[in-house]
Amino acid sequence: MKVIIPTPITPATLSYSNVVDEALPAWDMVAAFIVGDQVIHERRIWEAVQDGTGVVPRANPEYWLDIGATNTWAMFDQRVGSQSKGPTPIVVKLRAGIISDVAILNVDAELVEVALDHAGETVWRDERDMRTSEVITDWFEYFFAQFRARTDVSFANVPPYLEGELTVTISKPVNDVAVGEIIVGQSRIFGVTQISPHLSINDYSRKEVDAWGDYFVVERAFSKRMSANVLVDNILVDEVCRLLAKYRATPLIWNGNDERFGALIVYGFYKSFSVDIAHYTHSFCTLEIEGLT
Fold this sequence. Notes:
2 helices, Jelly Rolls, 5-stranded antiparallel β-sheet
């Protein structure tokens, strides 16, 4: 089990992006607004619910409804379900300091490439083909079934360059591409994920049935859930407990096994944890992880 502690992405960190924001005016202190007007303020879209002038959006929820992050910043807004979208390829460059891992979630693309440049030279590069043929079980499916696409991917062992610039390229041959979240940061190894982790989702859709048995369905967001037992060296027990206490209110990337199962990559909080100091050299840590929508 690995956790990635995210590095905050700010306008100073994002050195380049080819993603275009919505065609909306910036909020202006002296400009009047009426109900239904939308503006951009602090990298988010706000919709007026009352008429007014000079009312700051974030500080006045009775005047403004927070619609969400702009298209450029949706991939950094701590919401996996909101996506940045644009023509292929999406290219972003980050100056995030020393990092070791990159996680890219809710991707609609066929290829994800990550490269690190330093002093004008590429010092590290990796890529993932998001198409998968793992569900192909016979020759008919081989020739006629559509390729399924992975949605979550992670990259490890990024070399530590303080002044490095990380380039993320998300692409497919045609049509638009999308990405829900890009997280970069330094990782910590908790231990070895034991066999039989449990995966599920929380579905926030509305599903109601009337007296005649007809269903009324409103599709809404969902979030991942994961529970796992982790084998921890006893010399790391104190550090594991310290990290869990420190980041109890911070969303982290929890990576149970990034080499095989993208479903074991969850961005969110731990709901609960317990440590059983069971043996002289090893202990067991039980984690319940609840992902962000």
